[in-house]
Amino acid sequence: MTELATHTEVAATLHPIAVTVNGQDRAAAVEPRMLLVHFIRESLGLTGTHIGCDTSGCGACTVLVNDVPMKSCAMFAVQANGAEITTVEGLERGGQLHPIQQAFSEEHGLQCGFCTPGMMLTSIALLAENPSPSNEDVRWALSGQICRCTGYQNIVKAVQRAGELMKEGS
Ligand code: FES
Ligand code: FES
Prior knowledge:
This protein has a five-stranded mixed beta sheet with strand order 2-1-5-3-4, with helices on both faces. The chain has 170 residues and is of the alpha+beta class. It has six helices and five strands; from the N terminus they run αββαβββαααα. Residues 110-115, 147-150 line the site of one FE2/S2 (inorganic) cluster.
């Protein structure tokens, strides 16, 4: 067997993974090269996680992995084994919008919406650490998220409004 054949054989080996996605246990066998974003979109059918660049630049693919925002195009699915993953589909509960969704709606924090899932999930992590972020805090936290439409003003307002809604609800 040639060295090339050995590498091909290794690449084709499937690895079992088990993750919790939006509160549901999911198990699958994946190629080691499969990106987390492709696992989420293609294997799980959760297409609210977007692909804007595939090179870790835009943030459209951001999900929460154990409550930490991660660009899922920059991570292999096997690296998420055992993790709790939250995608945008997991935010609404029983017909009730999550406060971050409510706030983006109230403050018109989106236009085309392509960047919005990543914006919201990253904002949730920010608000968990800092419930009353300043304008600069929000802009710093969202500096890895690119929006081509809004000019960011209303996104910042939406994140701050979400912090208020969360305090009112707690
Ligand atoms: S698709 Fe992942 S950062 Fe752009
Ligand atoms: S709303 Fe269109 S990219 Fe942000």
